[in-house]
Design brief:
The structure holds two protein chains of two kinds. Chain A is an alpha/beta fold. Helices cover 40% and strands 13% of the residues of chain A. Chain A has a single domain (6-259, 390-486), classed as Amidase signature (AS) enzymes (Alpha-Beta Complex), CATH 3.90.1300. Chain B is built from three helices and two strands. Chain B is flat. The chains are: A alpha/beta, B mainly alpha. Chains A and B meet through helix 9, helix 10, helix 11, helix 12 and helix 13 of A and helix 1 and helix 2 of B.
Amino acid sequence: MSYHSLSDASAALRDGSVTSRELTDAALDRASKTEAELHAYLTLDHDGARQSADAADAAFAAGRDSGPFQGIPVAIKDNLVTRGIETTAASQILAGYIPPYDGTAVARLKAQGAVITGKTNLDEFAMGSSTENSAFGPTRNPWNTNRVPGGSSGGSAVAVAAGSALVGLGSDTGGSIRQPAALCGVVGMKPTYGLVSRYGLIAFASSLDQIGPITRTVEDSVAALETLAGHDPLDATSYRGDVPDFRVGFDDGVAGLTIGVVRQLSGEGFEAGVEAAFRRTVDLLSEAGARVVEVSLPSLDVSLSAYYLIAPAECSANLARFDGVRYGLRHDGPTVEEMMTATRADGFGPEVIRRILLGTYALSAGYYDAFYGQAQKVRTKVIQDFEAAYEQADVLVSPTAPTTAFEVGSKTQEPLSMYLSDICTIPSNLAGDPAISVPVGLDDAGLPIGFQVMAPALGEAVMFRVARAVERAVAFEQRPPMLEVWS
Amino acid sequence: MPIDIDIAHVARLARLGLSDEELSGYQAQLGVILDHAARVQEFDTEGVEPTAHPLSMVNAFRPDEVRPSLDRREVLEQSPAHEDGYFRVPPHLETQ
């Protein structure tokens, strides 16, 4: 018994052909067969999930319907706090931490009666592009277990791809939802900055972080965003206006729309298989009636440099709170400073330390203007470039990542080469705009390729409309061959 | 030209107690990354205002009303050491 998507399962729950308990047991059973090889989860909450499933079934039996997530198994990235369930952000410094509250995104899912299967693996504090930087061991790609799943939301992407959850929550600071979704053959979306409350998201870079869904279909992505979006007084950066209707024109296709192909996101560094699948998809959109134009984002090249100053700068400030006082690890020392320096050096992994040092340097006296200040000006140029591009096109498109899933261990010794893999996804974070990755094919090695659709702030409706057209035109087969081995 | 970083000073600012060996490793890696990041300095940003945040909002006000906060006992239970309703830390010495 398996359902392809949230919408399939949601319909089946309502016509009585399946119970939440059956769906939940199926997801947990899949996890029990796959986790030894994939390690998508840091914590599986068998008891809590079954209790929630039984509660959802009781609600259905009593005629109560709180929304599309009622009874649906959902996996939560472990940098989102969950009341009563250990939350570590994949860091030793938070090992054993049991949050006394739920983050708003989690609370919104629970309010509909969602079933939380567990907490998924990530690069420590969401810093990475491969889910190899976890203090608790890497996650593997279900399409080929010698390959990384991407990151940092690799655990949630793998849980959805492998069927141990129907929906996963991730967070995206520079591509951490879209890139793993692309590498695992599923749909991942980053909403407009501020649309989803960050309350209860362990902060990495507060001006860039957004929570979003990883799903098997574009329709599910819409349903998830409808559930997650909305003003939250507990997040001062939460968007205060009305949440737009994300379904305007959803099934209208792309006829009459102008699609902008970003000139800078092709060529050197992009694999031939990725470029071919991208071009093929653009041709399909053209055949479906879209006007295709080429657009230029001149600041794109330098935007990566700006990102790798801004994100570490914000991280160095945000991670100051992990000091051995209020939660997690403490190494004792004779003074408070010695206690803190020992705790932090031991509790953080190498990539996190690297970024804290980088950010501290970029913000320090004498270097602030040359590095952080200049990066903030580049950020303005990126926003201006996007604004100019959106005068020529309704949406912009690119590959989601320059390559398909790379081999485990192949980039861990070269941080800069890992950073460069985020070139397609970072600009939307700097601009605060929404973007989505949709799977569009496999390369010669049988690894999935993602197609990215970017839209202006609050332009989710047109983004989803194009993504839906891509999904229909391509009809991607979302079944990793490894699943046969585990079934 | 690799960027020269006083890595021990930076580590002290960041409250990271790293060994000399660790410091020299990070110094080399940061040099490579900062070389790339320094490209922001070559970009013409004459007359461009910095962006700290993608939203144009300036302030977010809310009514100043008393409402429940997290349970103190539950919060303190997650701390490495607490006493009489407070977090407990080693002595902080201004001078030695």
